[in-house]
Design the sequence.
């Protein structure tokens, strides 16, 4: 029987130059209220800064918020940097203004489920909790 | 939306203190509640100004010509993120973002291409740019000079509202104090050289989109406006020389009557403060002229066709609120930048309101409505209460540095989300009236070519321009900043010799430093 699980650690990050952080902050607050440990990077982060923060903070999940159209560059770049640091166990997920075709293509490149506008925060919480139940050990 | 309690019905008892003489006045007269012009849309319709930009300057130039051909009456430039932050398209931080969310403009060369074949003495142009606003303005002035159009003939607006960037939109470059200094430089320079140009568009839009309520949007934006006036007056500028060129920009959200009341209240508050607090004597200094945009945040990715309806009645509220210009969002904007077809439908929405609905025939048709007047008064009272609160925390700049505004806005956003998730607030097609068979709409794809094109063009520009002249003008700009002189003239000299955006940003950054945001959620 596994013991009581430690809280899931999540890094919420805003990569690139996009300053729209309403979604990132609402999600960060909702995950925190759901009992997760949440670190928010603030704006205008490079992929290197995000990968480094994720490893230093030893998170389970990275949630990226991108509304700038640069998702096809930024998601794979961060995935690759995290993998290169030997942390392919970290889930890279996120959301924003991302067309469905691009979501499919990113999921095929090792990115987790991506969420569009109008998603209830309960859906993100359920997704992360289910993922963690399978992948995160106590 | 503001949580203002509404009565089931409004009547004379709601307007016991209402004095039409004092609260309304005539259209075009103090306190301008009924509109800034005596004839309003009977004299001239609002400017239909669709915000557009993507890819390279050539790509966007084609979209502008398309929109002008379809009856649009003003231009509005959307810049990409690197430009908004003052990075050249070939800067490392620009990678993946060039031309994605707007057009890439890294020097005068790009600005010339953006307006090729569009005579700048015949259109008015709005530019949504803030951190590096003065630089893009200088590129524009220099591009007009190349067309033979002198700066005193230029009509348009540069957003240039840095305070709301720190509060909500987050495209900043310099710390607060030097950023405010350059904005006052713009007021001063334009009063002399570009008297028809709106030097700033004090914006509630981004504050609202980030989560603020109508009352917060109204109060925070006006408080920002008063801060700019304070700073310019402290410099010794005559209020009646710069205030007539201050303009505003509001979000038009879902709550139809509240939005109309907000626009009417905004005009009245501004007029009263400008006359009474700042002792402005020129009626043009009292007049709040503004642009409106329908609320992007209300658009849904689910059942995107529903957005056409949302946009139409938000646009109607803007018109009933007496806007001077209007952008109507496209139905596909929660998915990507608009396709040509979606952009045309958004413009047609305005044309139908203007030419078919009859609402433009009568000035301020809701004036005197028990409900609308009562709501207008109430929003004015709420704004005054928020001004007092802002003063009690030490003013706008202190509130930004302490994260007070940012927290207020984030709290409102969280509350909205909670209410939607608890079903207290219905969002059609999202948490109610959902359907499984959503029609996907066709979306615009922006190729990555823009980035490659821009890199090649910039490499060529850097090789071909006069390098010693570039260095000389950048150094002159740095010296002007060091000596606390007005930097606009030297910046225009930089633009003329093809200094790039980042070179100019960097020259000033070496004197002013960079802004670091306080991080919290």
Sequence:
């Amino acid at each position: 029987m596994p013991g009581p699980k430690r809280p899931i650690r999540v890094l919420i990050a805003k990569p690139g130059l996009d300053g729209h952080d309403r979604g990132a902050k609402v999600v960060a607050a909702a995950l925190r209220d759901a009992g997760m440990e949440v670190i928010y990077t603030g704006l205008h982060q490079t992929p290197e800064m995000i990968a480094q923060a994720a490893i230093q903070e030893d998170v389970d999940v990275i949630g990226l918020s991108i509304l700038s159209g640069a998702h096809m560059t930024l998601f794979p770049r961060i995935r690759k940097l995290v993998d290169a640091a030997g942390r392919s166990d970290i889930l890279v997920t996120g959301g924003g203004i991302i067309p469905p075709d691009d979501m499919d293509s990113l999921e095929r490149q090792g990115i987790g489920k991506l969420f569009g506008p109008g998603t209830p925060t309960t859906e993100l919480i359920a997704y992360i909790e289910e993922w963690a139940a399978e992948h995160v050990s106590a | 939306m503001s949580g203002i309690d509404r009565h089931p019905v409004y009547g004379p008892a709601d307007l016991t203190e209402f004095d039409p003489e004092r609260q309304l006045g005539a259209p075009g007269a103090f306190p301008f509640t009924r509109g800034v012009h005596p004839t309003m849309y009977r004299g001239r319709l609002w400017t239909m100004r669709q915000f557009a930009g993507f890819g390279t300057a050539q790509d966007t130039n084609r979209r502008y010509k398309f929109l002008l051909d379809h009856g649009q009456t003003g231009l509005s430039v959307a810049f990409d993120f690197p430009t908004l932050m003052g990075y050249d398209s070939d800067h490392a931080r620009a990678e993946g973002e060039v031309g994605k969310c707007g057009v890439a403009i890294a020097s005068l060369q790009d600005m010339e291409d953006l307006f090729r074949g569009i005579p700048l003495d015949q259109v008015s142009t709005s530019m949504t740019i803030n951190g590096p606003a003065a630089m893009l303005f200088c590129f524009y002035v220099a591009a007009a000079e190349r067309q033979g159009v002198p700066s005193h003939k230029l009509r348009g607006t540069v957003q240039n509202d840095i305070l709301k960037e720190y509060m909500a939109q987050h495209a900043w470059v310099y710390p607060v104090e030097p950023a405010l200094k350059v904005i006052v430089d713009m007021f001063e320079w334009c009063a002399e050289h570009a008297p028809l140009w709106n030097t700033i568009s004090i914006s509630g839009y981004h504050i609202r989109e980030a989560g603020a309520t109508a009352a917060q949007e109204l109060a925070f934006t006006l408080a920002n406006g008063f801060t700019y006036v304070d700073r310019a007056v402290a410099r010794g500028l005559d209020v009646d020389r710069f205030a007539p060129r201050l303009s505003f920009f509001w979000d038009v959200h879902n709550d139809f009557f509240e939005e109309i009341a907000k626009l009417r209240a905004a005009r009245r508050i501004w007029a009263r403060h400008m006359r009474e607090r700042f002792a402005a004597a020129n009626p043009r200094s009292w007049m709040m002229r503004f642009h409106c945009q329908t609320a992007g945040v209300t658009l849904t990715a689910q059942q995107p066709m529903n957005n056409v309806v949302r946009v139409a009645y938000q646009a109607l509220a803007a018109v009933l609120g007496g806007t001077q210009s209007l952008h109507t969002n496209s139905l596909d904007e929660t998915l990507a930048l608009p396709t040509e077809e979606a952009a045309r439908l958004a413009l047609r929405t305005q044309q139908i309101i203007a030419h078919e609905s009859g609402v433009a025939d009568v000035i301020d048709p809701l004036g005197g409505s028990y409900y609308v007047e009562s709501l207008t008064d109430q929003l004015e009272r709420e704004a005054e209460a928020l001004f007092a609160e802002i003063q009690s925390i030490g003013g706008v700049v202190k509130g930004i540095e302490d994260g007070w505004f940012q927290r207020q806005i984030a709290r409102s956003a969280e509350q909205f989300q909670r209410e939607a998730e608890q079903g207290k607030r219905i969002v059609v097609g999202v948490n109610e009236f959902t359907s499984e068979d959503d029609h996907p709409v066709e979306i615009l794809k922006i190729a990555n070519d823009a980035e490659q094109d821009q890199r090649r063009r910039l490499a060529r520009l850097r090789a071909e321009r006069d390098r010693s002249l570039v260095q000389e003008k950048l150094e002159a700009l740095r010296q002007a900043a060091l000596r606390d002189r007005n930097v606009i003239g030297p910046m225009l000299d930089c633009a003329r010799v093809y200094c790039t955006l980042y070179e100019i940003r960097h020259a000033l950054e070496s004197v002013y430093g960079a802004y670091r945001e306080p991080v919290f959620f």
About this structure: Residues 9-135 of chain A form a domain with the Rossmann fold fold (CATH 3.40.50.280). The first helix of chain A runs from residue 22 to 33. The CA atoms of residues 52 and 82 of chain A lie 8 Å apart.
